[in-house]
Amino acid sequence: MKKIISALMIISLLAAVFSCREDEKTVGFGIGTDTITLGPEGGIEIVSLEAEEGWIANSTVPWIVVSPSNGYGSIDCEVKVDTTLISGDVRRGVVRFTARSGESKDLSVIQAGYDNVISLSSAEVEIPSYEAYGKRYFEISLTSNVPVTVENDAQWLKVADFDLNLDRGSRPRTVKLRIDWESNNRPEERLAEVRFVPASGVELARQDVLKVVQEAAAAIPDSREGDSLAIVGCARSLGFDMGKYEGENMSNWNIVQLWEPTDEGFTEDKRGRVKALAFSYFFTKDGIPYEIQFLSKLETLVLYSNGNSFLYRFHSGEYLSKLTNLKHFQCFAMGLSELDEDFKNLRNLETLILAANNFDEVPPILTPENFPNLKHLDLAANRVRVLFDMTTTTADKEEWGGLYKNDGTNFPTWLLKWENLEYLRLSNNYMQGEIPEMEDYEVRWTEEEVAANDTLPRGNNNPAGYNIIGKPKVLPNARYFAINLNLYTGKIPEWILYHPHLMEWAPDILVFNQDGETVRADGKTPGFSNIPVSPDYYYDAYPLLKPDYYDQL
Q1: What is the pLDDT of residues 93-130, one digit of tens each?
Q2: CATH no. for residue 327?
Q3: Are residues 274 and 354 in the same domain?
Q4: Which domain holds residue 498?
Q5: Same domain (yes/no): 238, 292
Q6: Torsions phi, psi of 414, nearest 5?
Q7: Same domain, residue pair 202 and 228
Q8: Distance CA 109, CA 45 (A)
Q9: Is a pLDDT exceeding 80 seen at residue 131?
Q10: Which of these three, 112, 143, 173, is where a domain ends?
Q11: Does one domain contain both 378 and 516?
């Protein structure tokens, strides 16, 4: 029995020895795969290497790196493939693993090139109908490997300039786009498509189109409720804070005056509607708000002091011109530079104040024929810069501002023929040249007119022997006339010196006083050559207008 057990133990021992010898046999030399395929962006692939001895790895191309590149025994190697810079074509490389014994294995690396693409981070964007001015934009990312141009027919969208730097061959680059948009004041949704197309005639594997959907604005009815909506819309467009009026009845808004039955011109359809509206100290780059047109019963509109107004040049636009009931329009320091042709729809205007805007000439549309009811016209201080020596400035006239186009050869004589005007102010406007004598004006003072008015001089009723009969009948009803602080030279015309209302004009201040501190572009110093020493000459011609206290002065 003992012999049997011993024999079994020997057999078991021999089996264990032979088993260890089998484990010590070589595992050979090889790699887990002979081919890897990657996209153009590259990456890292793990390749298993089996070896029982030292080895080394070499790449045939510089865009493939193996880590580790040498060692002893089996290991998992990282094969790093760089991003390709080529377009379309496939590139190939080989990694060779070589054992110390000389045996080698090849790993084939295949990498596809980039397709030509123009892609967007978002293909569809939804935007509100309105946001504050500085928030009317959105951003998306554009990725491309070809030069890109923009095709956009939507006037209310603007793609800001961008720089797509294609300095990495055909590797796509990404750039952030800013797209500005305008408010949608209409009660209809609007849609725009912006296309990004290759600047050269290349074929694209992908080309995204940007779809922009803008929500509709709320409809504004012709009613008292509609008036309140229109005012809120105007305030929003102008950047005027309406917060303090929230929850308040419109009758408590101090920027608004409502129609009352006791008002002149009241009709039942005007009851409770907005009669007068005034916005002041606002900030807008949009000009006259779209919503203003819905205030159909409006009689008085005041727009006063837009921030940095001299930086902007707005047209009056179509919306304002729909307020055909408007009688009084004051637009002071807004940035207006032009009255559109349809502004003449406002034929009922009696007061028009356009002071401190950006006009460079008296708007030609302002004629007695277009505005037969106008009595008050103010175009003062339409100048952007203050200049004291125009001979040395490098600034263009457009940068001066003022009604510089109405110089001595282009004086707005039609204003002087406006019989209904009671107030005309053209002060502080860089106007220059000489004031016309108006000798060619066919309208003259008649004998009948002078006979009907005891104060008018007719030669035999005044110490000066002055006769106004037959003289140009210039601005006969003007109780205020101001042309001061301009650049006029020459003589003061007779029609001014002997105007029936001259002394009401405060002539020493508002007529005779030119901007004598300024040197004109032609080197002349502004100022008239015949400024009266005293009003004596005038009261000799108009003795009945002499104040009782004058002789005691």
Answers
A1: 999 999 999 999 999 999 988 888 999 999 999 999 98
A2: 3.80.10.10
A3: yes
A4: 224-439+476-548
A5: yes
A6: -65, -25
A7: no
A8: 10
A9: yes
A10: 112
A11: yes
The reply to whether 10 falls in a domain is no
Sequence-ordered list of residues with C-beta below 8 angstroms from that of 511, at least 6 positions apart, any chain:
481, 482, 483, 484, 492, 496, 502, 505
Q: In which element (H, E) is residue 107 found?
A: strand 104-112
* 302, 176: one domain: no
**Are residues 375 and 423 both part of a single domain?**
yes
CATH code, domain carrying 106: 2.60.40.10
- Residue environment code for 102-138, b if the CB has 16+ CB neighbours within 10 A, otherwise e: eeebebebebbbbebbbbbeeeebebebbeeeeebeb
**Residue type at 273 in one-letter notation:** R
Average pLDDT, the chain: 90
Helix or strand (DSSP H, E) at 353: strand 351-353
Whole-number Cα distances in Å, 41 to 147, 176, 370, 442, 443: 20, 21, 70, 85, 86
pLDDT in tens, 278-333: 999 999 988 999 999 999 999 999 999 998 777 888 999 999 999 999 999 999 99
For residue 452, give both structure tokens: 């009907």
Residue position matching structure tokens 């205030």:
295
Tell me 544's DSSP state.
Answer: G
> How many Å apart are CA 414 and CA 88, to the nearest integer?
72
Identify the burial level of 305 via C-beta atoms within 10 angstroms of its C-beta, where 0-12 means exposed, 13-18 middle and 19 or more buried.
middle
pLDDT tens column, 492-525: 999 999 999 999 999 999 999 998 777 777 778 8
Number of domains within the chain: 3
Q: Which secondary structure element, helix H or strand E, spans residue 198, and what is its range?
A: strand 190-198
- CATH code for the domain of 132: 2.60.40.3450
- The two beta strands, 336-338 and 328-332, are unpaired
Angle formed at CA 139 by CA 135 and CA 140, multiple of 5 degrees: 165
**Chosen domain end from 112, 131, 161:** 112
Amino acid at 534: S
Structural domain includes residue 368: yes
Query: Are the C-beta atoms of residues 339 and 316 closer than 8 Å to each other?
Result: yes
Same domain, 104 and 121: no
Tell me, yes or no, whether 125 and 106 share the same domain. no
Q: Which two tokens stand for residue 288?
A: 């006259």
Q: Which two tokens stand for residue 125?
A: 């964007």
Tell whether the torsion through CA atoms of 340, 301, 418 and 434 is positive or negative. Answer: negative
3-state secondary structure of 162: coil
